[in-house]
Amino acid sequence: MGHLVGKDLYRQLGNKIDNLTVRAPWNDTLFAILKELYSAEEAELVIKMPYTLTGLDRLARLTGLPADRLRTLLEGLADKGLVLDLWVEEGYRYMPSPMVIGLFEFSMMRTGPAVDTKKLAGLFHQYLSDRQGFVAANFADGQQVSFMRALPHKEAFRQGEYLEVLDYEKADALIEAANRFAIGICSCRHEKLHAATKECDVPLESCTSFGSAAEFLIRHNLAKEVSRSQMREHFGRSREMGLVLNADNVQRNITFVCHCCRCCCNPLLGIRVLGYPHCVVTSNYIAAIVSDLCVGCGLCAETCPIDAISMVASPAGKQQGKTSQVAQIDTDICLGCGVCALKCKPGACRLNKRQQRVIHPETTFERILLQCLERGTLQNQLFDNPQSLTHKFLRGMVGGFLKLPSVKRALMSDALRSRFLDAMKKGAARQGKEWLAEL
């Protein structure tokens, strides 16, 4: 009976995590991950926690735990990255960590005897690489709002065009705007190392964080603080190694930039191996080939992390005595990262502006709302108390309405999206949570 009660507890915890900002479908592997990460007491606490950032006083009322015990549990969970604690308006607010970015990244950034890294790496590898599992749950229905976007390398633009790039798509501008920096272990690379599928020579310590995210990671010993100049040097090394820069999919208050390779990065593998092109949102630029300059070396195709470039026969080249093959871009999946152009010595491969602008969410608040709307969990952000019968009823009613395909399409459309987000901001303000819209 105790075993059944224990599994039921973790099943409830799995349901809670599945209803956060990304879907986390239940299976035996997820059960094993949760059992490894959470004690029974921690699991019970997270199940009772609201879905959104909440202060200690409200948490004490909702969970019934004494403040001292509650604080101890929350600190332990935050040290493991299982709960996020952010300083907002003179106090910490807490929320359960989603699967991504959250449980996976922070668990694989931890080191030391208190964590069985090899066991966790094997479990996460099995869970995240399941073709019908996590990635499918978040992108199989055409979802387009991912948590990360490609950041173009400035050296990949044609001469003079970089001046037109907006600051939020410039790595150097992001570094200058931030006030705190951290570098930690790349979770994907660490996982692949233990899964024996890491093919690159990229160092494990390559994940960069900024601002509030850096503060969280440093405070919980999940990353090391670095200076602004060290961060610039780190980005320079990534450029030399031809790594993809994948940033937080927002325009303001960017919290992280991943330095990704084709063999380790799970979102890139989601595109290249699993076939879901929206695992990473494209930049506002796209690779293009000037055929007259292409020498057919194939370096761009070898370098592309998602196999968006292929070498094709060039009949004109054969007739004129030039190269017999030229590069061809698959514009349906090209990320606009510019890694291909870094290797192109003749300058045939460069980034051009896309004909249709990609609209990235302005803030984390907007990204979370849009992510949840696409994945059918927005109602949990609106009515966040799992202990309230009224909130449970409203979640069911509003959730059913928002899941209607016509409603979802309308709210995500160019015509209504801005109005929808403005209404959500006003709603937060009426509840005294103006700070939410600024995250």
Summarize the structure.
The protein is α+β, with helices and mostly antiparallel strands. It contains 21 helices and 13 strands. A 6-stranded antiparallel sheet has the order 4-8-9-6-5-7.
Structure, explained:
43% of the residues are buried. A 6-stranded antiparallel sheet has the order 4-8-9-6-5-7. A 3-stranded antiparallel sheet has the order 1-3-2. The model has no long low-confidence stretch (mean pLDDT 90). It has 4 domains: 1-91, no CATH class; 139-279, no CATH class; 285-353, Alpha-Beta Plaits, CATH 3.30.70; 364-438, no CATH class. Helix 1 (2-18) packs across helix 2. The protein starts with a helix and ends in a 9-residue tail after the last helix. The protein contains 21 helices and 13 strands. By secondary structure, the chain is of the alpha+beta class.
Mean pLDDT: 90
Strand content: 5-15%
Query: Fraction of residues in helices?
Result: 40-55%
Distance between the termini: 44 Å
Describe this protein with a few key phrases.
three-stranded antiparallel β-sheet; 4 domains; Alpha-Beta Plaits; 439 residues; 13 strands; alpha+beta
Give me the secondary-structure topology.
Elements: H1 2-18, H2 28-37, H3 40-48, E1 54-55, H4 56-63, H5 67-79, E2 83-87, E3 92-96, H6 99-109, H7 117-128, H8 134-139, E4 148-151, H9 171-177, E5 181-185, H10 187-194, E6 205-210, H11 211-219, E7 224-226, H12 228-241, E8 244-248, E9 256-260, H13 266-272, E10 285-289, H14 299-303, E11 309-313, H15 315-320, E12 325-329, H16 339-342, E13 349-353, H17 364-375, H18 378-382, H19 389-402, H20 405-412, H21 417-430
Antiparallel strand pairs: 1-3, 2-3, 4-8, 5-6, 5-7, 6-9, 8-9, 10-13, 11-12
Helix pairs in contact: 1-2, 1-3, 2-7, 6-10, 7-10, 9-12
